[in-house]
Amino acid sequence: MSSLESLWREFAAVFPTIFAVEAGRYVIAAGLASLLVWAFWTAGLKLRKIQPRTALAADLRREIATSLRTTLVFAIVGFCMHLAARAGWLSIYQDFAVRGPAYFAATLVLMIVAHDAWYYWTHRAMHHPRLFRTFHWTHHRSKTPTPWTSYAFDVPEALVMVAFVPLWAAVVPMHDLAIFTFMIWQLLRNVAGHTGVELSPVSGKPSRLFGWLNTSTHHDLHHQAPGSNFGLYFSWWDRMMGTEHPEYQARVAEIAERSRAGRKRAPEAAKVATVLLLAVAGAGLASGRAQAATGDIAGRWATEGFGSIVEFRPCAGAANTMCGRILWLWKGDDPGGRRRTDARNSDAALRARPLVGVEIVRGLRETAPGVWSGGSVYNPDDGRTYTGTVRLRGGALELKGCALNVLCQTQTWRRPEEIIAAVRGL
Ligand SMILES: [Zn+2]
Ligand SMILES: [Zn+2]
After folding, report:
1. Local confidence band at 46 (pLDDT 50, 70, 90 cut-offs)
2. What does the alpha-carbon distance between residue 398 and residue 406 come to, in Å, rounded to a whole number?
3. Which ligand is nearest to the CA of 152?
4. Distance 82 CA to ligand 1 centre (A)
């Protein structure tokens, strides 16, 4: 099979899931935000409307079409990241135990802070007269943002937006769930900035405690006056660079004043809003599971009973296939004190070779997300070669193999770190 053909098979197996996750979370987040605005309109949100103008149906159609195009761009980049991660160019890991929860949290927070800077400066650059038409024109066709505006980008802008993720992951080792959480965070903050109503619990005065978090009014003002408010999550870049809209605080105070009348019904509205947010989080997690299933099997695995450690790597000279060789043996020596050899091999010429280093898994291909098949597994204990399927299930590797179609075996392999962490926890 040519490498182009195998790339195509890989694409067909993985890309539909990535695209479904990208497009699905946009539709769910923007859809639920629209539903929230609609459901609580009379209960107080109409008092928090930022602009007197209302977006037209034509605006919504354009925003949805261009946003779906953006999710396609994101998914293509996501597929390239999948290939890059396998080739070892990105340091994305799946084993939570390897670096622990503190590392997970710290890298997630750092990624958000770094992305805020990336956004501020690339966004400001895209407003340069030479770049605006190519990069950022479509986004600013929306004068009155709606939740559907969130991904309404020109293709070059979509590429600039998503480029941050692989660049960051090339430098900082990230857990794949941290990247997923980051994507949900940026989407929710993006949607919040485009709802057209002020969602934050603003008071009349600038908040000392939360003043560094941008409100919905902050980005809405950027659509009204594109020369100010370039920041995404935090207000510090705009403050530092003197680009905050001069009336920003006054507008927020005015909305706070207007919304006081709707306060009586707010507790009830807050309850339903919480339920809706939990629904978004649930949907996000479910799609996260779907994405996690496409995880990588590269790296070290302890075979059942910790008899050996096998390392998976892309096979030499065959793209998109995985091979595994023995790295370490529980019983490294035979009873005579000599290094163990491949003594049960059906091929007598191979019986003298040292067992450590023998390639026992060959030519596995990912035929569906998280499912690898088409290869062979050699079991040195009985000298037989099995054909079968390897499946990632809950962080463990499930191997099902049959020799001569009758002698079937099932084994579960685990990450050595997972076993060590379990032992430490005893
Ligand atoms: Zn915008
Ligand atoms: Zn802009």
Report:
1. confident
2. 19
3. 1
4. 29
Measured CA angle at 193 (ends 68, 62), to 5 deg: 30
pTM of the model: 0.63
Residue 72 CA to residue 277 CA, distance in Å, equals 25
CA torsion through residues 114, 298, 357, 326, sign:
positive
Cα–Cα distance measured from residue 218 to residue 232, given in angstroms and rounded to the nearest whole number: 9
| Chain segment 71-129, per-residue pLDDT in tens | 999 999 999 998 888 888 888 888 778 888 999 999 999 999 999 999 999 999 999 99
Q: Is the confidence at residue 349, as pLDDT, over 80?
A: yes
Task: Answer for the pair 3, 359: CB distance below 8 angstroms, yes or no.
Answer: no
The arrangement of secondary structure in 299-424, i.e. its CATH architecture, is Beta Barrel (2.40)
Q: Where are the domains of the chain?
A: 3-292, 299-424
Of all ligands present, the nearest one to the C-alpha of 124 is 2
Cα dihedral value 267, 272, 275, 279, nearest 10: -140
Tokens, residue 77: 């980049």
